[in-house]
Design goal:
Blueprint: H1 3-6, E1 14-15, H2 20-30, E2 34-38, E3 44-49, H3 67-72, H4 75-86, H5 90-93, E4 101-102, H6 107-117, E5 121-126, E6 129-135, H7 136-144, H8 155-171, E7 182-185, E8 188-191, E9 194-195, H9 198-209, E10 216-219, E11 222-223, H10 226-229
Parallel strand pairs: 1-2, 4-5, 8-10, 9-11
Antiparallel strand pairs: 2-3, 5-6, 7-8
Length: 230
């Protein structure tokens, strides 16, 4: 499997001129650990993660060293740390060296990247532009759907089936489902979305069952948490 088969295509992003508070709010509201920073052409120029916002003056968590350690730290590093903990702009706190993959990158290679660099998600680029993101959760889902399913089909067939399924979902106004929450393995469609009502859940399963090529539907869906509906 490749990045295109599991990636989240509707990516939450932030502008480099946005405030640090706005970036933090995005992470908190969407329950994610990092968000890509893009320019006006949708090119990934950085990432803002929870780690980048860990040491902030507003919360009293900015770095503090003993006097002798501070004397051993270069003035350049001290200045950089001050900017990161006190600046109100994303461009000053984001990580600029973006580790990325393409749509064709194998999941095995992505897993190694996440582990090696100790990151939780990686942006997917096409010609330098952001088209998706792959997280650890995406990889876990890809693994979960292989359990108990024999390798009978081909990735090409699964991709074609998934494309048909996604096209049908997109055509339905009531179906608010991210492509990342739909996977197909050996003709088995796996649905990971959240639903608002039992009718919506049943309709999603029925749509998947009626998609040409789908042998079976595995329903992993969960109701939308009550606190999000309040």
């Amino acid at each position: 499997m490749r990045a295109i088969d599991v990636m989240t295509s509707k990516v939450i992003t932030v502008d480099e001129n946005a405030t640090v508070q706005a970036a933090a709010k995005l992470l908190a509201e969407h329950g994610i650990s990092a968000v890509p920073v893009v320019d006006k052409d949708n090119r990934a120029i950085g990432m803002v993660s929870e780690g980048d916002l860990l040491h902030r003056a507003e919360t009293g968590t900015d770095r503090r060293r003993s006097w002798w350690l501070e004397m051993m730290t270069s003035t350049n590093q001290l200045a950089a740390e001050y900017i990161k903990s006190h600046s109100g702009k994303v461009r000053d706190v984001m990580t600029r060296n973006v580790i990325s993959v393409t749509e064709e990158t194998a999941l095995a290679d992505i897993a190694i990247l996440l582990e090696t660099h100790r990151i939780k998600r990686v942006p997917v680029l096409r010609d330098g532009k952001l088209v998706g993101i792959v997280s650890r959760a995406n990889l876990v889902r890809a693994f979960a759907m292989t359990i108990n399913d024999p390798r009978s089909g081909t990735e090409v067939d699964d991709r074609a089936i998934r494309d048909k399924l996604l096209a049908e979902l997109k055509a339905q106004k009531w179906a608010e489902v991210s492509p990342a929450n739909v996977t197909v393995k050996d003709g088995v469609a796996h649905l990971w979305s959240s639903y608002l009502s039992d009718r919506e859940r049943r309709a999603l399963v029925l749509l998947a069952e009626n998609t040409p090529g789908v042998r079976r539907v595995e329903d992993h869906m969960r109701p939308v948490p009550a606190y999000l509906l309040a």
